[in-house]
Design goal:
This protein has 106 residues and is α/β, with parallel strands linked by helices. The protein is 26% helix and 18% strand. It contains four helices and five strands; from the N terminus they run E-E-H-E-H-H-E-H-E. A five-stranded mixed β-sheet has the order 1-2-3-4-5, with no helix packed on it.
């Protein structure tokens, strides 16, 4: 989506199995990615969601300006430091963990 000269991409629940999100998010100002599972999640959870390492790889490949993690669940709450470490292996840009009703400017 583009609004006021800024670009924004939202990812829903996905695994990025087809490697399409990086192309969609290429050089966007703000990528909002779901953060529903921790890195050590099992196969069933990974069949529905991206772990932090994959989110970081996508953000880096797409060269996004800013990454916002949303759709946080009980299994990821309180694990921000571990998720950040995994994401930082690939992506070094601004990173935010959201709470409901938070606002961000791209």
């Amino acid at each position: 989506m583009e609004i006021g000269g800024r670009s924004l991409v939202f990812s829903g629940d996905m695994t990025n199995q087809n490697s399409t999100l990086a192309a969609l998010a290429e050089q966007v100002d703000l990528l909002v990615a779901h953060h529903a599972i921790p890195e050590q999640a099992g196969a069933i959870a990974r069949s529905l969601h991206m772990p932090p390492s994959v989110i970081g790889q996508i953000a880096a490949k797409a060269r996004v300006t800013q990454l916002v993690l949303s759709h946080r669940m009980n299994r990821t709450l309180g694990r921000e430091q571990a998720a950040t470490a995994q994401i930082r292996r690939a992506y070094g840009g601004p990173l935010h963990f959201t709470d409901d009703l938070q606002c961000f400017r791209p």
